[in-house]
Amino acid sequence: MMGALPAIFAGNREQADDFIEQLKGYIRLNRLVHGMNSYIQRVALALTLIQGPLVAEWHKNVGEWIDGLTPNDNVPAVWDHFLNEFSTQFQDSQRSQRAMNELKALNVTGSREWVWERPLDRGKLRNRPYVLLLTSLDCACAMS
């Protein structure tokens, strides 16, 4: 296998997106390795990286689901179902609200140009201006 495995995911919602993206990258890098094209094996690999008391019950349920599948069930829908279930259970549904709260808490001084030039989404924007975030900032300032 090439590359490093993603860090263990223990249930922190703020790390869920990064975990899935790192997992997808690891699978992409190793797609020619025997077994990595198996959708059931991909889910089994993901489960080895999901550990801890906050995820134990979900891990157990998904493991039992995978154990009940047959070789004929090894279809892309298995991986898609896992990703959907993971998203529903762990991905941060409050991210937008938390970002809005952070924007409201900013004590912005200076011009809009200064705000425009500054990435406000903690590097997730890849240094590109984010027009919707600026609009949200205007709304947040108006609400104060």
Task: Please provide a brief summary of the model.
With 144 residues, the protein is mainly alpha-helical. The protein is built from 7 helices and no strands.
Task: Note the topology.
Blueprint: H1 16-29, H2 39-48, H3 56-67, H4 76-90, H5 95-105, H6 112-117, H7 131-143
Helix pairs in contact: 2-3, 2-4, 5-7
What does this structure look like?
The chain is 56% helix and 0% strand. The protein has 144 residues and is mainly alpha-helical. The chain has 2 domains: 13-90, no CATH class; 95-143, no CATH class. The N and C termini lie far apart (53 Å).
List its salient traits:
144 residues, mainly alpha, 2 domains, 7 helices, disordered C terminus
| Overall geometric form | globular
Regions with little confidence, pLDDT below 50 for 5+ residues: 110-125, 129-144
* Largest sheet data: none
Please write the string of helix (H) and strand (E) elements.
Answer: HHHHHHH
Radius of gyration over all CA atoms, rounded = 20 Å
In total, the number of domains comes to: 2
Counting DSSP E segments of at least 2 residues, the number of strands comes to 0
Structural class: mainly alpha
Average predicted local confidence, pLDDT: 79
